[in-house]
Amino acid sequence: MSPQIFWIKLDELNFDSNQPVQKLTIHENYSLMGDVSKEFKPNKMFDFLKPED
Asked: Which long-range contacts (CB under 8 A, 24 or more apart) does 30-37 make?
């Protein structure tokens, strides 16, 4: 296994609040290499933890 280098061009992502949530899975994804800006996939929003009293 060799090290892989990838990057995300932030100016190619749409951060508008009306856009769907997306994520990029990097754990055990050995195919990522180079510009991965278009590799984000729709995903559900995670639940935030509530503060403890």
From this structure: 30/1, 30/4, 32/4, 32/6, 33/4, 33/5, 33/6, 34/5, 34/6, 34/7, 35/6, 35/7, 35/8, 35/9, 36/6, 36/7, 36/8, 37/8, 37/9, 37/12, 37/13
